[in-house]
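Subject: Protein record for review, amino acid sequence with backbone structure tokens
Why sent: The fold of this protein is of interest and is recorded here as tokens.
Notation: Tokens come from a learned vocabulary of local backbone shapes, not from coordinates.
Attached in line: The record itself begins immediately under this heading.
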Amino acid sequence: MKKEKIKGIIILAVAVIFSIFIFSAEPGETEKSSSLSLYEAGAESMESMEFAESLPEQRAEEVPVETAGEGKIYVHVCGQVNSPGVYELEPGTRAFQAVDVAGGVTAEANASAINMASELADGSMLYVPAIGELDIPEGAEGIASEQTQGGRDLININTATKEQLMELSGIGESKAESIIAYREEKGGFKTCEELKQVSGIGDGIYEKLKSSICVN
């Protein structure tokens, strides 16, 4: 009985000593573990910095800058058109095409004062005057220019009114109306000789009036 009591005391003492050892060891182990974690984190950070420095320097790629509206022209279409404004058009656009883009001419427009076959330039202004209007803005394109031959004024068949066309030799009211209808359908005459394409105008009439006309 006495031996069992002593054995129990010894076991209890060993258990207490073991417990003390365990509890005293945990803070140290924890500190050691924390120190190790900090070391590992620092090492990883250094490795990341060294890797970043070892990467080759990359140059920014040069991106070509496209010019706005490249390959286009800008024309100010104004005056007696239904939708005046600045329009982006294709190079080589003719006056009649620009007028169409701007919604066509108004009822008050004097379309005959415009050379509808004229080619428009970038940055130009196409002005459609009203009937009877004489004050044309400076720099406006498409306005028929005065041309003379032998001291006589030439009649521009692309811009002339019916009355002006009727002043030509062999051209009456019916043929004048046919000329206007043709140029509106075709967008104007490219050459004077094209006038022979109009119904009722043959070589004979053309020979009589060719010295009195122009197309620009």
Notes: The longest strand covers residues 73-79.
